Structure formats: C-alpha cells, structure tokens
Write the structure tokens for this entry.
Amino acid sequence: MSSTLLTRGTLLVDDELKDRAAEAVQAVADEEITEVIFTTTTGRRVSFDPAIVDLFGHVLSRVAQGGELTVHTVPELLSTITAAEMLGVSRPTLMKLIRRGELEPVMAGTHHRIRTKDISALREKRELARRASIDELMQLGEDDED
C-alpha cells in the first residue's frame, strides 16, 4: 500500500490504498466524522479540531474515488479567472458579482483581484442558500401530499 507525492502537490495512490480508503468511507456511511486522533511513535495522542477533521474526511473520500489527488495552496489574492473557477461561474458572471457589490475587489494596477477568504465566504453563503431552497421545495412537496 502506497502513495507517491509528485511535483505540484499531486499524490498518486495505488489501488490497495484506494480500496482501503473506500472501505473506511463505507464504514462511516452517512455519519459525520467528529474526531480524528493520531498516535505518534512515542505514544502521544493528538486530536484535531473540526475543520481539520473535515479536511481529512474530504481527502479520504477523494482517495476512495480513485485517480490522482492534487493539493494546492491558494494565494491570498486571486485573479478573476481563478476566483470564477472556484465559484463555478464564468468570469463575466464574477464581474457582475463585483459590480453588484457581492464581492469586493482589490485593485492591482488596473486588474481586479479577489481575496480567497471572500470567495470562500460567498461559496458558503451560496451553498447555504441552495440548501435552504432545497429544503423549501421538499417542504412544499410534503404540504402538497397532505
């Protein structure tokens, strides 16, 4: 069982490790992972806060899906193209978000840059709105059945 770290943060995972990751994901099923504990070679136990636990869960799920896993650090300021990709929108749509005041750009000369934290916050806001809309639609469907 092994993984190989390549340049640019790409991690290749062999089939055995992928299968073990898949088994771990299946063992958890739909339950939320709330704690991850590492034991060091000296026997010291280290537990992690929820954000790190969530990160481990995402990585484990991706490894279980197979293929390669690429991990990159993201700079504090993003180009509009990169910011648009992170939001899953086109660059023109991103520029509309800026004009409407939903995102505040940082100017680098004549170029717009967007703070990574602002993109993350907008993604979270949009995800919460999407979930609320789904819940509302499901509630409407239940009301229609009554």
The beta strands are 3-5, 10-13, 37-39, 45-47, 68-70, 77-79, 105-108, 111-115. DSSP finds five helices and eight strands in the chain. The CA atoms of residues 94 and 100 lie 10 Å apart. The mean pLDDT is 87.
